[in-house]
């Protein structure tokens, strides 16, 4: 590839064009692969956001249920005295133990 006097030989020009075309094709395939990866990442992010939103809704409903249960427990403990509170705590522990055994 000699470039002398402002003129390039035809063989050099053809070689450079072929080489440039090869580089463009390689770059094009890399851009296409990068596009596929970014689309996959975008899909994954949308799916994870949906799952997080669902989890947030579930936690909100669980929080409401737990608050309601605690309010009722407070009412029962004030009305029934210390023995009733002990029975409630034992019953709650029993329920948690059964749920734990079932979930394993």
UniProtKB/TrEMBL annotation:
Protein location: Endomembrane system; Endoplasmic reticulum membrane; Golgi apparatus, cis-Golgi network membrane
Organism: Caenorhabditis angaria
Membrane topology: Single-pass type IV membrane protein; Single-pass membrane protein
SUPFAM superfamilies assigned to the protein according to its UniProt record, in alphabetical order: SNARE fusion complex
SMART domains recorded: t_SNARE
Name this protein carries in UniProt: BET1 homolog
Transmembrane stretches, start-end: 85-103
Role this protein plays: Required for vesicular transport from the ER to the Golgi complex. Functions as a SNARE involved in the docking process of ER-derived vesicles with the cis-Golgi membrane.
Gene Ontology CC: one annotated term: endoplasmic reticulum membrane
Family assignment from sequence similarity: Belongs to the BET1 family.
PANTHER family assigned: GOLGI SNARE BET1-RELATED
T-SNARE coiled-coil homology domain span: 14-76
Binding partners and assembly: Interacts with SNARE complex members GOSR2, SEC22B and STX5. Interacts with LMAN1/ERGIC53. Interacts with STX17.
Annotated GO biological process: protein transport; vesicle-mediated transport
Keywords associated with the record: Coiled coil, Endoplasmic reticulum, ER-Golgi transport, Golgi apparatus, Membrane, Phosphoprotein, Protein transport, Transmembrane, Transmembrane helix, Transport
Main location: membrane
């Amino acid at each position: 590839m000699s470039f002398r006097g402002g003129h390039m030989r035809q063989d050099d020009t053809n070689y450079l064009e072929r080489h440039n075309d090869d580089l463009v094709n390689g770059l094009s395939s890399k851009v296409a692969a990068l596009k596929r990866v970014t689309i996959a990442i975008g899909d994954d992010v949308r799916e994870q956001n949906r799952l997080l939103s669902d989890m947030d809704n579930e936690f909100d409903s669980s929080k409401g249920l737990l608050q309601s249960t605690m309010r009722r427990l407070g009412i029962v403990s004030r009305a029934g005295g210390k023995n009733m509170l002990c029975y409630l705590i034992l019953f709650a522990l029993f329920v948690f133990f059964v749920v734990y055994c079932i979930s394993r």
